[in-house]
Amino acid sequence: MDEDYDYFQELRDFLGGTFHQDISSPEQALDEYINEANKECLLFTIRYCDEFLTSNRTKQEKENYIQTNAEIYFPAIGLTPLIWLNNVVEQIKEAVKLK
């Protein structure tokens, strides 16, 4: 993986490519992503998600970015976009341990 990547672009691609309008549920989409991705890809996903989550952007900017790029209706799942993304990262970290 190239050191000159843009974590913002990578996150947009991950959210839009995984959590799009044709999914059955966010949980199923994440399960499919985890099952199809290799360990290196999962580690890279964790890396750019963590960079985004710890960036200097405001909480509102982060929430808006997640909402704009993931086709998820957050009130229906009972989570804010940031809590949801943190949960996604934790699930991917757990999956890496099993790969």
TrEMBL record:
CdiI immunity protein domain residues are 8-92
Spell out the InterPro entries in the cross-references.
CdiI_2 (IPR041129)
Name of the protein: Contact-dependent growth inhibition system immunity protein
Classification from the root reads: Bacteria, Bacillati, Bacillota, Bacilli, Bacillales
